[in-house]
């Protein structure tokens, strides 16, 4: 599993050029101030991921350019796979309208749900 994480980190580091065509996008699994998160499947491997799509117009309108850039930098820095409690970014790319971060898909609900269920 550490080798898989290492390979994913290398893909981010090597800046592999991906597009939306490399993924089959499924349903929305979350929404935020700048965009949505979708469940998706990478076409060539069949692996499921979470695709966080940030809308460039919303980012600019809310003056969130620095926040979006910092998120990309921080995700790159923490995506070494050393900590099982941090969602790792495997890929990142952009379209004319969106910034897309391809993240580990974590099934089972968000932290708020689990805290409310189990205290």
Automatic annotation (TrEMBL):
Give a Pfam family name: Pkinase
Any one of the GO CC terms: postsynapse
Q: What EC number(s) would the UniProt record show?
A: 2.7.11.-
- Which positions does UniProt annotate for ATP binding? 52
Asked if the keyword Transferase belongs to this entry, the reply reads yes
Any idea which UniProt keywords this protein has?
A: ATP-binding, Cytoplasm, Kinase, Membrane, Nucleotide-binding, Phosphoprotein, Serine/threonine-protein kinase, Synapse, Transferase
InterPro entries for this protein: GPCR_kinase, Kinase-like_dom_sf, Prot_kinase_dom, Protein_kinase_ATP_BS
Question: According to its UniProt record, where is this protein located?
Answer: Cytoplasm; Membrane; Postsynapse
Q: List the Gene Ontology MF annotations in alphabetical order.
A: ATP binding; G protein-coupled receptor binding; G protein-coupled receptor kinase activity
Q: Which residue numbers delimit the Protein kinase domain?
A: 23-119
Q: What GO biological process, any one, is recorded here? A: G protein-coupled receptor signaling pathway
- Subunit comment: Interacts with the heterodimer formed by GNB1 and GNG2. Interacts with GIT1. Interacts with, and phosphorylates chemokine-stimulated CCR5. Interacts with ARRB1. Interacts with LPAR1 and LPAR2. Interacts with RALA in response to LPAR1 activation. ADRBK1 and RALA mutually inhibit each other's binding to LPAR1. Interacts with ADRB2.
- Identify its protein family: Belongs to the protein kinase superfamily. AGC Ser/Thr protein kinase family. GPRK subfamily.
Name of protein: G protein-coupled receptor kinase
Q: Which organism is it from?
A: Micrurus spixii (Amazon coral snake)
